[in-house]
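Hi! If you just cloned this repository, the fastest way to understand the data is to look at a raw example. We've pasted two of them here, unedited. The first protein comes first, obviously.
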Amino acid sequence: MSRIACLISISFLLLGYCAQAQQPKTDSRPAPHKKLLVPQAYIGNSDYKGGPIKKDELRNLLQQGLTARDSTGNKYKVAGFELGYAERMIYEDSLGNLVTLMDRMSHYCLGDTLSAGVSSSIYERFKLGDTLYINRVTVLKPSGATTTEIAGKGMICILTK
């Protein structure tokens, strides 16, 4: 009798295992992540986001400030950005040879416009071949009653004729 009881117990265990295997499985995978939309910074109210640009056009656009929007057209308020400027300069070494070097300047601006100190001097420094960098762009993303700071894409502007 003990063999029959043992066989019955094993058959019930197998039957329970098979019944469990037959049940529909729930999806245990995590929900797919939303694609993160990274806002792109633009100079002024234009679609310019980097590359070659004339110095007069860059001056006019910079005076308008920075704007930011993502690929779906959502607009963001710019909270701050880092302005970098690489200026080509010609120096003379100790032997009298001319040497072309880059002088670099960097300044963090709060808000969407250049600070007063930078804007008073930078426009006169613009010349052919200089490079303007806009990095570390911080934008405000409204989320309900609060706003969240997120990073946006910067740009590189190369001054041309």
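Ok, and the second one:
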Amino acid sequence: MNLRSACLLACALLLIACSPWNDGAYYAQQARKEADRRERLMRLSTAQVERGERLHGKALVAFLSGRSFGYRYGSFPDGSRGDYVVYRHFNPDGRFIAVDNHLHNAPNSVDGDAWSVDGERLCVLHQWVSSTPQCYAAAVDARGGLQLYIDDPASQFHGLLTSVSNEIIDGPPPSLAARAR
């Protein structure tokens, strides 16, 4: 192979590696598409749910403290069909406990998981989900369920409904049987 052929081959390989078709660009494009799809669905859900009475400050602390909020879904996070059950517990001492029948079936606290109320916002550090606190605007619907709306002005999901509880338990969450795999 002569010098000219070697240079042309090197340039061609460099163009392919830096092109919009490389793996990094492809995965970034797919992540954007998925985020846009989730945003569309969340906007649709938010529009269909009547927003409840907004809670903040001491009223929000009193509503959450010592309670567990249950959520039931028709499929698991991996997409398989089944009754996926989640409980989120707001311990009065500020610890946050998450339990589900997919990965975390015992109501044990994880060191560092916490919740707090800062004026209008409920902020939760749930390290299995994120290494930084996620903040929400909270409301109570007509049947007493907790509605959480994403409160992150830098996010495309800001102001969108992310969850509505189906069940409220005074006290810690129950242990759940792990799903058979």
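That's it. A detail worth noticing about the second one: The chain has a mean pLDDT of 87.
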